[in-house]
Structure formats: structure tokens, C-alpha cells
Amino acid sequence: MALIVQKYGGTSVANADRIRNLASRVGRFKKKGHQIVVVVSAMSGETNRLIALAHEVTPTPDPRELDVIISTGEQVTIGLTCLALHELGFKAKSYTGSQVRILTDESHGKARIIDIDGHNMQKDLDDGYVVVVAGFQGCDAKGNITTLGRGGSDTTGVALAAALKADECQIYTDVDGVYTTDPRVVPEARRLDRITFEEMLELASQGSKVLQTRSVEFAGKHKVKLRVLSSFQEVGEGTLITFEEDSKDDNMEEPLISGIAFNRDEAKVTILGVPDTPGIAYQVLGPVADANIDVDMIIQNQGADGTTDITFTVHKNEMNKALEILRNKVQPLIHAREIKGDDNIAKISVVGVGMRSHVGVASQMFRTLSEEGINIQMISTSEIKIAVVIEEKYMELAVRTLHQAFELEET
Amino acid sequence: MALIVQKYGGTSVANADRIRNLASRVGRFKKKGHQIVVVVSAMSGETNRLIALAHEVTPTPDPRELDVIISTGEQVTIGLTCLALHELGFKAKSYTGSQVRILTDESHGKARIIDIDGHNMQKDLDDGYVVVVAGFQGCDAKGNITTLGRGGSDTTGVALAAALKADECQIYTDVDGVYTTDPRVVPEARRLDRITFEEMLELASQGSKVLQTRSVEFAGKHKVKLRVLSSFQEVGEGTLITFEEDSKDDNMEEPLISGIAFNRDEAKVTILGVPDTPGIAYQVLGPVADANIDVDMIIQNQGADGTTDITFTVHKNEMNKALEILRNKVQPLIHAREIKGDDNIAKISVVGVGMRSHVGVASQMFRTLSEEGINIQMISTSEIKIAVVIEEKYMELAVRTLHQAFELEET
């Protein structure tokens, strides 16, 4: 008998039929003798409908009241899920975030979980109930309803698993696991049986949409065993996200590379010919950060003539805003030779814990791209990742070729 | 400066425009220096939509989970109402039933209010906030979400007014007050400036749809000053529902009759020729009550031959069920001569505290109906009410003629 937390997203609860399917699946686990906690999102489209309703009243809804409104989406789903479980003859009881008492800070719309009281849930589990919890929501110390932000239901699942010391947290999505890369780009992409947390984190933050970065971080921090599964397939083990130590046990030889992520949502901003003095990076990037623009890659190169070039990437939607800030606020102070933007780029990341102990991954990557005539515009590396920026039109070619070069195909 | 509780029904919050109107009205009271608590229902149609959603999953939804689902209707409205008030520059804060802590018993779907904690609301009012509370809902001692049943938002309004010792509880509806009778039947019907609680209770339970019986009872018990107003008219004093003592102060001569209510939703069930022995009424009506059929009027007449006749009224939808029970379960025991049903009836009630001190109201009523050739099938009286059952097709004629006979028209 295990305690399993299962998280289902909006498409898995989109209508009565899907909710019945979900209940059947939960029921099968229950019949095997497991204790089950189900975390559900709002029915797909519902959160957007509620946000639109708020925007009909005001273009700038107060975050506290917006949370009161949108948290009803998950509340409806927990009730419906319990009804479907009852219909199959199972005992089930729903909990809103406030009822569990998922205590968060006061940051409406992007609250962070501080503590979870697992007492009542554990009692219900011991009494044979399936416990159904609203994802994405909690309450602050004063009882105000808070939400965790988009994708927060994954985080709720992981946090509940940590609080209840669950044996496993299963994330049901519309894909059946984590792949070596997006199968829509590379049909030969292979599902990974397991992947380490660090790799998953790199893949998630590099553009893989399967799991929210934040929930992976949370799982890593609290050592929650996480598994990604398909909610539309009856069988399949999905992908287990493991701690590196565990995975080493049964993998004598680690794969060099686990996966390839890509992202075409970024744009590149370059400042050429800046006087190479201390503090110049801050002078350039400080005003950008002050404008709440998220910066991803940052590269600085020293030139020969006492000047330096700085390049960074931002979301495509924010490139013009960033350029405006640089031209109006920064240029008068630093007198750069040129400031330019390019939103015709894509970022490709090769990820794998194996590259720690293997030299040559970078050079293999660069050679592969060079053989295809693809020019590399930026390079950024971490211990288990090499990311490059290339011209956008080469993105799919690059991903396919690298996938082949690193022998990631289905065998 | 007064503390006023204002309750708005589903049609008053049906869309963003109506909610903005509501906010403007609340704002005008606020600007006059009043402290305002707003109680809102779900947007019209929303509760039915949510119930339908539950029924898509199961024909017999568990009451606890159904409450979790349908209570979201009012939760959305409180958020939207606060947003509309913010948009006009007012401070406003929403409360769900659980957040106020409107403590109820555990009867999901028809919970009764036990206690209200007014502490936080009073603090917010003193800090200049408009407090916006979800009607129709509360929570039990264990924190389970409960609902008060249809029309429960009126009760929430009255209960909050009692807990906060408000100066007045204003119920905004789609009519501009309580009328001598339904203006759709009698165009000359007159709005009453004031009416006593007892009269309002009789009118409410006799088919007048303006206020829910239960909220009137609650207001009477806790001496809450209640006023019915139109949410679609800018001016108007509506109808004040008073305690008899107050109303006597400024009405030297009481009107004989305050209003005429009618109801065509009932059907009549008659058991003829029952042995007239003690306990016979219970033998007949016990099984009907056991089947959860609500009985309204009950009349028993002694016959000359040692037998008696019993007649009672039930909702039209339940007549056949009642007949079936009588024929299958009761008849074998009591051997009645005949059991028959008639759903072709209407009930008309003449209500007025004045009839206590004036003889002749009943005889005037009977004479008026007789002059129109309308046969009276049943009569039932209370201290301030005379109700008769007649053939349904005469209902409108009877109401119009009585309205004229008792001189209730607009003058």
C-alpha cells in the first residue's frame, strides 16, 4: 500500500466524461489498496473565462478580488470529481486550498506555499476516503484566498506529496512522459523512463512545457518522487524524475545527453562598443530589470580596442521595450557604438548530467551545427547544459540533426 | 450615519453593466456617510448552470459536494462587485460565507444559520470599506461549506443586519415594493408604504414572491428593519416592513386589509367517508408526510353518519404521488368511501392585521365571491388571514373583485 498524489490538469477535467475517466483511473489505484490524493485544475478554459469576466468590470482588477474569482474554477472541479468518485462507489471528500489550509504568503496571483496542514487529509485517507484537493490555490495567514499563478496546480501536487510524505507524486498531462525532444519536431523522439531533477529543471526552464519549473524545484528540494504520465492512455510508466544518486544505482553507464529543448519565444538585444569599465553590465541591465523585463541569457565579450559587447535575450514581446530603455535611458550614459535587436532567433539546449564526466559534448554540438552550415550567435553553458542561439529558420533542422548526432532516437 | 445592509438578487448582478449600476448605487449611499454591507446572489442562471454540471456527472449529487460547487456562484459575484466598487474609487473587500464565518448547522442545501462573527466586517466598515458578502452560504463547525437553500441570500442579508445591529436591511428586487396584490393581475394594485411583519409573513407564505418566508421570520425574530426596494429604479422608498407596534404609532386608523395573495400551484386531495375515530388524521397524513410531501391547508369536517371527510392541499406536482400513497398504503387500513384529487384549483388569501379588530371581513369576502357566482371549496383562517380555495379559472376574477371590494386600489 502506497500513498500516491495524482495531479490532473485542465484538459483531464474538461467535461463530465473526462471527469468520469479520471474517477475510473483513481478508482483502479484505490482498489489496489493505495491511499490516493487527487489534485485538480479548473476545467480547461474556465480560468480564462473568469479572468475575462473580471476584465469586463475593470481593466485593472485588484489581485485579492481576482483570486477570489478565479479560485472558484478549481472549487467546481473538486466537487464534480468527488461526485464522479461517489458514482463509482468510492468515498471521496473535497478540500479547497483554505480548507486544507495550504498556507501561503500574501502575494495574490503568485503566492508561495509556506506550510500545509496534512492532519485532516491524513485522517480522511485512513478512513478510506479519496481526498480531492483544489490545485493552484491557498490562503494567507488572515484567511484571504490566494492563487499560486499559472501552472500552480503542479506545485500544489508536489507540496501535498511533501507534506503527506507520499510515496510518489504523479503528474497526469496530455503527453505520456518526458521526451528526448518535442516529438512534433522530431518524430523519432524517445520517451525517457527516467530523468534526473537537475536535467528536468534545465529542460523545463529551457522551454519544455511538460512540467512547471517551480514544481520541479519544489520536488527536488523536498525529495518528492515525481512521475509524468498521460491521462489519456491506460497503460505506461511515464517518466520518473529521480535524484541523481538513485539513478546512478541502476544505470552503470549514464547516457551522455538526456534531451534537447528549444525555445523560439526569445529575442536578442546587443550593445556594441561599450567602454569596458567596471559596473558596465549593471549600468546596462539595471534599468531593464527595473522595468520588470525578464532577462534570460547574458553574454559579455571583451573587444581588443578597450570596448566590450554585451548581448542578452528577453521574451520577444519585450524586445522593443528593452531597446527603448537602452536607447533613451542607458545610451546617454554609456555612449555605446550601436544598440540593436533581433527577434529572428531560436535557442537550443542540450541537457544531460552525463556531460559532467564526458568531455567533447560541446565540440560535438558545435561540429554538428557547423556541418549543417548553421551559424552559432551565442553560447551559454552550465554544468549539465549547453545552450546556443541560432537563426530561427534553422531551429527544426538543428534539433533534428542534434537528436541524431547524440543518438537519442527510439531504438 | 447609518449602517445599512443591502441585498441584491441574481438579476441585479446578471452582467458587468448591472454590477456597475449596483456599485454606483452603493457608492451614493457611501458618499452620504453610511456604512454599507452588500450581500449578493449568484449571477442569474449561474446556480442552475452549476447544478446542471453536477447532474451531468451524477443524477444524485452528494449534498456536501453540491454545496462546494454551487457556492462558487456567489463567490464570483462578490469579487466582481468589489472590482466595480474599486473602479469607482471606493474601498471594498469581499467575504465568502466561510470567511465571515457564517456558522450554520450541517444540513447541506438547507442549512440554518447558528451564529455570525461580525468582528472583522465591523473593523473593515470602520476603516471605510464597503463589505461585500456572498449570500446563500456559510460553513459548519468543521469548516464544510454549506448553502442555505433557494432564496437564502435574503436570509443572509437579514442575519448580517441582525449580527451587525444594522439600522436597516434593504432588499433590492425587480419590483419596487410590496403591493396589495400582483399588479400583473390587478393593474390598479397599490404599493404599500409599510406592512407589518405578520402580514408580510402571511403574504409571503401565501404565494407572494417578493420576499422569502424564512428571511421575514428571521427579521421578525431579531427585530431587523426590513425594506423592499427596486434595483432598477433610482428613486422610491419601497415598502418598509415594520413591527406592529411601530406602525400603530403613525397610523391612527389601520387599514382593514393590506393585501391579497394567490397561488395556483396547489392541488386538493380529498378522502371521503372515513370512520370518525381518534387518530384518523394522523393515519391519513402520516404516510404523506413520511414521503416528504409538504401539506399546506388541512380541513376535517364531521359528517352526520359517524364518518368524516378530510381534505388537504399539496403542490400540484405531488398530487399523484399523494393519491398513490393514500390508495396503496392508507385505504387498506381506513376503508374510506372515496379518495380523489383535483389540481384545477387556486388559493386566494386576504391578509391584514386590521381584521383582528374588525368583524365582517370574512363575510364581506364570501359575499363578494358569491355575487360573482364563484363557489368556495375550502376555507382556512388565521388571526390575520382568510384563505379560500376556488376553481382555478375564477382566480383572476376573484382577485380583481376582492381588490375592489376591500378598496385597495391606487387612489
Structural class by sheet pairing and helices of chain A: alpha/beta
* First-last Cα distance of chain A: 35 Å
User: Strand order within the widest sheet of chain A?
Assistant: 3-6-2-1-9-11-12-10
Query: Strand-residue fraction of chain A?
Result: 25-35%
Greatest interface:
A-B, 37 and 37 residues
Count of DSSP helices of chain A?
14
Number of strands of chain A: 20
**How much is the radius of gyration of chain A in Å?**
24 Å
Quaternary state, please? homodimer
Q: Uncertain runs of chain A with pLDDT below 50, 5 residues or more? A: none
Helix content of chain A: 25-40%
Q: What's the shape of chain A?
A: globular
Biggest pleated sheet of chain A: 8 strands, mixed
Mean pLDDT of chain A: 90
Short description:
The structure is a homodimer of 411-residue chains. Chain A has 411 residues and is of the alpha/beta class.
Q: Describe it for me?
A:
Two copies of one chain form a homodimer. Chain A is of the alpha/beta class and 411 residues long. Chain A contains 14 helices and 20 strands. Chain A has helices at residues 16-31, 46-57, 63-70, 72-87, 97-100, 119-126, 152-163, 197-205, 213-222, 244-250, 280-290, 319-334, 361-371, 395-405; strands at 3-8, 35-40, 92-95, 102-104, 113-116, 130-134, 137-139, 145-147, 168-173, 194-196, 226-230, 239-242, 259-263, 266-275, 295-302, 307-315, 338-342, 345-351, 376-382, 385-391. Chain A has an eight-stranded mixed β-sheet, sandwiched between helices. A four-stranded antiparallel β-sheet of chain A has the order 13-18-20-19, sandwiched between helices. A four-stranded antiparallel β-sheet of chain A has the order 15-16-14-17, with helices on one face. In chain A, helix 1 packs across helix 4 (72-87), helix 7 packs parallel to helix 9 and helix 8 runs antiparallel to helix 9 (213-222). The radius of gyration of chain A is 24 Å and the shape is globular. The interface between A and B is large, with 37 and 37 residues.
